[in-house]
Amino acid sequence: MSTGTPPSDRQQLNEDWIRSRRWDIRYANGNPVATLDGLAEVLGIDRREAARRVLTQPFGKAAPQELLDEAHQEPAADPSS
What we know:
Layout: H1 9-19, H2 36-43, H3 47-55, H4 65-72
């Protein structure tokens, strides 16, 4: 799923790392999930929570620091409040 904005360098590094891992999470149409945004969409969670869940997997111990940072960042303030 694309938001129309290019990913930051950190997000791109995280996506590249995730694509290099082996897992079997798929969209309803059978296509494999290979990004944090895709994982978040399939699980119905936000991107930060998806990063946290990736870190709980056995391969999460080898995650780049940027993914750890993304998983533990504070949520953005809601501009409507």
